[in-house]
Amino acid sequence: MAENKSTTIKSEHDLSERINWFPGHMTKALREVKQKIKKVDILVEIRDARIPQASGNPSISEIAQNKPRLIVLNKSNLADMESCKRWESWFLKAEQTAIFINALKPSSVKKITTMSRRLLQDKWQKYKDKGINTPPIRMLVVGIPNTGKSTVINRLTKRNAAKTGDRPGVTRHQEWIVLDKDIELLDTPGIMPPRIDTMQQGMWLCAIHAIKDEIVGKEKVATFLVDFLISRNSSELKKRYRLDCLDHNAEELILQIGHRLNYKKHKGIVDYYKTCNQVLLDFRKGLLGNCSFEEPPV
Ligand SMILES: Nc1nc2c(ncn2[C@@H]2O[C@H](COP(=O)(O)OP(=O)(O)O)[C@@H](O)[C@H]2O)c(=O)[nH]1
Ligand SMILES: [Mg+2]
Questions:
Q1: How much distance in Å is there from the Cα of 10 to the middle of ligand 2?
Q2: What is the residue with the minimal CA distance to atom 4 of ligand 1?
Q3: Which of ligand 1's atoms lies nearest the C-alpha of 78?
Q4: Domain 12-191 class?
């Protein structure tokens, strides 16, 4: 993979060639996650609320060993609220437990422990009925890159530290972080590689930065994104860069944005790469408005 990393994908064929490399990486990553899963009672799968299904990894079902799974749709503060509502109903119908959170908000992250306890309630009740002392619930955070796994883990840990106050809040014994008397967290997340089935999914994953920009090239990711925002008639895009109208193609608009930002090279020519980079930075900070890429299947 390394040798091809810096090249730019020019066509769909080019991308599908790249997709073919993932299985090798996937096998190794999945093997590691599989080992971690063995140690826990519940999987907390962090996804991106802007692509609720394509930011998951279907292979997780195969290696989950029938353990309960909580799907956490993070970064909901960057997603379109109406779309989140549609997905909420979809997950309910599909009988998958999914919650929307914003990991930057402590109260939101708290939902994870509450739901985890609820998902294991019946199993733990059986222990109690038999008079067996209930073990702590052990959980593992899994997910593709950049979905917020580390942020979630840090928040869950901090919450506990704040609560306990006068004694060491985070008890580290080996690899477990004690979150509460009845709940423990494996301290390193299981990192799942993204699975790309289509060019469109690949581009969504690039937009949310689950795939490094270098794989596809910043220009291509930014062009895709601006195209998407044009299709949504994004007032935020227009406002942010003081554009007169969006009645242009993505390349033309990026050039206009470059002019507005005064990102120029010699002789006043727009620095296209720098402009694309800025658009991506702004989008990922939420400065180009809330948006969701994927809609629930009908
Ligand atoms: N806006 C927003 N940003 C988030 C949220 N959760 C995480 N981030 C940011 O997303 C980036 C990646 O988060 P990180 O926890 O490192 O992801 P990881 O690769 O899955 O461990 C960081 O810049 C976080 O600050 C969220 O709910 N909302
Ligand atoms: Mg991380």
A1: 30
A2: 75
A3: 1
A4: alpha beta
Return the CATH number of 217-284, one of 1.20.1730.10, 1.10.1580.10, 3.40.50.300, 3.20.20.70: 1.10.1580.10
Number of neighbours of residue 24 by Cβ within 10 angstroms: 11
Phi–psi pair at 208, nearest 5 degrees = -85, 5
Residue nearest atom 19 of ligand 1, based on CA coordinates: 146
- 148 CB under 6 A from ligand 1? yes
Which residue has the least CA distance to atom 7 on ligand 1? 148
Question: What is the DSSP-derived secondary structure letter of residue 76?
Answer: G
* Tokens linked to 91: 């997950």
CB neighbours of residue 243 within 10 Å: 16
Distance CA 267, CA 290 (A): 36
User: How is the chain split into domains, by residue range?
Assistant: 12-191, 217-284
In tens digits, what is the pLDDT along the chain, a chain of 298 residues?
333 333 344 555 555 555 444 556 677 888 899 999 999 999 999 999 999 999 998 889 888 888 999 999 999 999 999 999 999 999 999 999 999 999 999 899 999 999 999 999 999 999 999 999 888 999 999 999 999 999 999 999 875 544 443 444 444 446 888 888 889 999 899 999 888 888 899 999 999 999 989 888 999 999 999 999 999 999 999 999 999 999 999 999 999 999 999 999 988 999 999 999 999 999 999 999 999 999 999 8
